[in-house]
Structures are given as C-alpha cells and as structure tokens.
Amino acid sequence: MIFIMAWRNIWRNKMRSIVIILSIAIGLFAGIAVLALYKGMMKSRVRTVIDAEVGHLQIHDTSFKKDYEPQFVISNGADLLKNISSMPEVKLAAPRSITNGMLATATGSSGVQINGVIPALEYEASQLKKKIIEGNEFYPAKKNEVIVGKKLAGKMKLKVGSKLVLTFTDTSGNIVSGAFRVAAVYQSDNAPLDERNVYVTMNDMNALLGISNAFHELVVLLKNDEDVKTVQQTLRKKFPAYQIETWREISPETDLLVKTVDQYSYIIMVIIMLALAFGIINTMLMAILERTREIGMMMALGTNKIRIFSLVLMETIFLTLAGTPVGILIGWLAANYYNRRGLNLSGMGREMMSSFGFNPLIYPEFPADKLMGVLLIVVITAIVSCLFPAMKALKLQPVEALRL
Amino acid sequence: MNTVIDAHNISKVYNPETIPVYAVNNVHLHLERGEFTALVGPSGSGKTTLLNMIGGLDKPDGGNIFINGNDITKLSANELIDFRLKNIGFVFQSFNLIPVLTAKENVEFIMQLQKIKQSERDERIKQLFQQIGLEDKLNERPSKLSGGQQQRVAVARALASKPQFVLADEPTANLDTKSASNLLDIMAKLNKEENITFLFSTHDQRVIDRARRVITLVDGRIVKDTAVVSTEHKEAATIR
Q1: How far is it, in rounded angstroms, from Cα B24 to Cα B49?
Q2: Domain identity same for A16 and A84
Q3: Which InterPro entries match (chain B) (predicted)?
Q4: Smallest Cβ distance to A12: which of B58, B82, B100?
Q5: B19/B104: higher pLDDT
Q6: A247 part of a folded domain
Q7: Residue A218: is its pLDDT beyond 90?
Q8: ipTM reported for the complex surpasses 0.85
Q9: Is residue A245 part of a domain?
Q10: Which domain holds residue A390?
Q11: SS (H, E, C) chain B
C-alpha cells in the first residue's frame, strides 16, 4: 500500500512533479551527452594513438629507448619482422629507423625525430599518406625526400620542394648530414607530434646511419584491440631479448587521459545530480509540508516511522526515476544521431583540439558501459535527497500535526 | 463489564515555567467496555487534550492512563504508535482520509499495518462497508465522497483494527443534520450490536442527545458526569 501511496502521491501536484521529472530528464541527458562526448573523444584519441601514432605494440632493442642511440638496432630484425608478420593476430608490422637530429634550413634549425620508413608499410601503420595535406607521397624513383609536419613547416617556413639539411650521428658517433627536399607536408590530429616528427625513406636514412637493412623500431598493428595483452605476452615469451611494449606503455599519457576523463565524467554526472538534488529536496519538502496533517494522521493511526520513511523514500525514488528513462532515451537518441553524423567541434578551435591530440570531428558514443554507474548515481541522489524531507516528516508529532 | 480506560489524576499544563495554563487539571476518568460517552464542554475546556492523552497522541504532565490495564504514560513514542495501531480507533473532525487511496484502501491500510491476511481483510472490509452502508463506494477516492460518506469511511477505518475503543473528536462538526444523524445511527448500532466503546468529544447536541453518558469539562476539570438511561429519563450519576 505504501508503494501505491508513494506513486499516487507524486501525481497529486502534477505540474510540480512534471517540472522536477523534466529537470531530472534534462540533467540526465546533459550528463549522458557529456559522457557520450567524452567517450567519443577518448575512443577517437585512442584510435589515433593506435592507428596513426604508435600502433598496438612496438618492439625495440632494450637499450634503444634510453638515449635513442642509433647503434641499438633490433638484432635479426628481418627474421623478427617475418616472424611477427606471419602471426594470425597481426594485421601489419612496419619497421622504422629512428634517430634524433637537427633539421636546418637557410633561415634556422629545429630539433626533430627522423623516422626512416618503408613508405608502403608506413602509409598503413601511421596513415601517413592520408595525413598529407600538401605535396605528394614518396616517389620511389627519387632519393632524399622528406615529409614534414604542418606545424614544423610553418615554423621553419618550409614548402613542398624546399630544401633542408638533416644532421645526426651515425652508429659510430660521427656526425652525418644529408640534404633533403620536402616532398609533402602532413597534418595529423596531434600538433606537437607533427612539429617533432619528419619522415624519410628507410633506404636514405640507413645509408646515412650505416646500418644497411637494420631498423630500430617495429610497429605492430593487430586485427583486434583486445589481443594486445595476449600478443605482448606471447612475443615476450618468444623474444625475451627485445623490449616489447603496448600502446598504453608507450603512450601512458593517453592511458592516463582516458582514465582521468572517465573519472571526470562521473564527477560531472555527480555535480549535475547534486544540483538536481536540491530541486528534488525542495519538491519533497513542499510535499511533506503540504501533507503535515495527513502524515500526522497516519502516525496517529499507527503508521510507524519506518513506513513513513519508506513512503518519503519511495516518493523521492519514483520522482527521480520517472525522469530517468526519458533522459536516457533522449541521450541515447542524440548520441546515436551524432555518432552517425559526427559532431564537428572545430568551432572550438581546431588548433586547440589538435594541440591536445584530438580530432575536432567527434563521434559521440552512448556510454552503455556507464549506464549502471549513472543509474547508481541517480538512485543515490534520490536516497540522499529524501533524507532531509524524511527527517522532517519523522520529526512530526502527530498531536501537533493534526492541530494544523 | 470490564474497564477499558482508567485515567488517574491526569494533568496537562502549558507554559509550566512562566504562566502555567492547565488544559487538563487532575482528571479521573473511568470507562467500561461498551460505553457510548460524550465529552462535552466549551471551547478550550480541554476535551481534545484529554482525548489526545487517552489516545496516546499526547503525554500527560502528571497522572497515569491505563488502557486495558497497561499504563500508556510509560510507553515510548514508538511503543505508543504500535499501541495505537492495535488498541485505539480514531475518528477526526475533518475525516482525515488519505486522499490518494480509495475508500476500501483507506480501511485496508490499517489492516495491512496490522499484517492481517488478505482473505481476512477482504471479509472484514465487506462487513464494515455493509455496516456503514457504502458497499457501492468501495473504489471511490475521498474527493468523490460527501462529507458524511467520508466520515462513515473514517468510522470503518477506526473499526478496521478491532480496537479496544474508538475516540471521536467532534465527528459531526463538519456534517449536515442528515449526515450527522446517519453517522450517529451507525455508531450507535455498532456500539449496541458489537459492544464497541465510543468516547466522543463534542459540542454537538445531536451527539449529546444520543450519548448514554455525558462528561462535562470546564477549564480542564470534570464538572459533571451524567449517566443517561434513555433520552427521556436522565439521571445524574456523579459530579466530580
């Protein structure tokens, strides 16, 4: 009966209840929209990290990443490449020769990471070809071509066809230089990375480094994201001499970002619900105040405090939960709509987004995995919101309440 | 006959530390099972306060109240709630039905609180609504019932828990003559046929005329306690 009373009580003042139910629905929609947006952004960021920056796994010589010394090439690299490429979980394995050096033009110089790549593999491993915004991909017949990032090109005033000199040390510690011509300018979603990385062909780079067919880094792309850990373990067992890292280890900032944003999204949800809680408390207090006499009468007739508390709690939960499906539905519809169409946030500043490594075109995703968490927050909000009005009700003395 | 209510020296004083006002002053009251008693007196004489104390809604500042031998002044607030549920039926001046429940649900609610089985509840509801003559209004909400009908449902609710006695605070005050008379007929019938004890506080001469005992309160004291054999033949019994 308390259940029936609670449900009917919330409809005694329809307008007031509808207003609070709608505000809960809108608040929940806002929360879900934020969660969906964050989820889309984080998914896009992780995809960028995996598909366009570091791959699922990277393999290096154990000493290479300490100082990026060119002599620490992957021993038996060719065999390793062959072996890994033949694994069923592996989609692609792309080798890179890497060194840090100086890019110099007639007007200035800048420290860069020079990536010697096999163009056909690199185009797939980091989608370098897709990122080209000016000029053309590496032309096989040409030597000493370089592809530079947009930000670096702007800083060094480089254009397609510009000449530059790359200087670095070879495996013997000698300083070597090579004159290169800009074949293309690329732009990724990660401006700091664009500013630091230049790409040359592995043949040109290895010739200067003096490492013939060796390489320093093997980027591994898998068919499924979920296989990362198992493949890493398999490779570690098979090739214990190498340093084998997942994208989470290589790009801990991305992992941290995803986890932090996950927590932030819950915090935002809690803040929204906290604001709504005051509305709920207000509504429930008004409801209790209006029914002082009725509650006093119920107590006089023998309704104990647990039942009075249950009544207030149920009313608050009904009031709160009534708006929940509406909020979730609108959130789901909006998330699905923008998931198909994409939400262009370039109005917020493409540069700003890209400086944090984000694509301005976000595909929000309904946070189904967080739905239980969201519902839990809603229920906790209802319970917390009912406490104050319930205490008010419980403090009523039947004799005084009936006198009103 | 057996004693239902036995109140000794009960007092209720407001502002005890400044200007004490005795709402009820050293009152003795003794009610036997099956009585149909009216508590009368001018406004402010302490009728409702006395009724509230007997009903366990208010605590006296002095004295003891025994209901069926149990001193309710010694019970805690929670024990009193349970005691009221099991022993006392209330009828209020302004009906005080739960507006979101139907007439049937209002009556059933009390029985649910008492954890009475569904089959037993259904049977009792049928019987009670027959007694109050509202079998056709079982599923109506209070807002769809007249004042008289609401008060009859309130009587049914008061009797739902098979209480030791029913306290009715000005039950006819908001009713027209016909409804009041109808209600009094029902209560008198219940009193006569089922030996249910009724204690009214009232100003209403119609109630006083039907009572078999009339207790008059003035300034918190019982000044007259009259047992009435019949409306035609009144006999003064005790004057305290």
Answers
A1: 7
A2: no
A3: AAA+_ATPase, ABC_transporter-like_ATP-bd, ABC_transporter-like_CS, ABC_transpr_LolD-like, MacB-like_ATP-bd, P-loop_NTPase
A4: B100
A5: B104
A6: no
A7: yes
A8: yes
A9: no
A10: 2-49+254-403
A11: CCEEEEEEEEEEEECCCCCCEEEEEEEEEEEECCCEEEEECCCCCCHHHHHHHHCCCCCCCEEEEEECCEEHHHCCHHHHHHHHHHHEEEECCCCCCCCCCCHHHHHHHHHHHCCCCHHHHHHHHHHHHHHCCCHHHCCCCHHHCCHHHHHHHHHHHHHHCCCCEEEEECCCCCCCHHHHHHHHHHHHHHHHHHCCEEEEEECCHHHHHHCCEEEEEECCEEEEEEEECCCCCEEEEECC
* A399:B52 CB<8 A: yes
Q: Which of residues A240, A267, A293 is at a domain's end?
A: A240
**A369 within domain boundaries:** yes
pLDDT, position B131: 83
Q: Which residues of B touch A294 (CB under 8 A)?
A: 96, 98-99
Q: Give a yes or no: residue A55 inside a domain.
A: no
Q: Is the pLDDT of residue B103 over 90?
A: yes
Residues A31 and A168 in one domain: no
B234, pLDDT greater than 60: no
- Tell me: pLDDT of B240 over 80: no
Give the one of B84, B99, B105 whose C-beta lies nearest to A301's C-beta.
B84
By the CB < 8 Å criterion, does B101 face chain A? yes
CATH topology of domain B3-96+163-175+182-238: Rossmann fold (3.40.50)
Q: Of A240, A262, A280, at which residue does a domain stop?
A: A240
All residues of chain A having their beta carbon less than 8 Å from the beta carbon of residue B92 are 297, 402
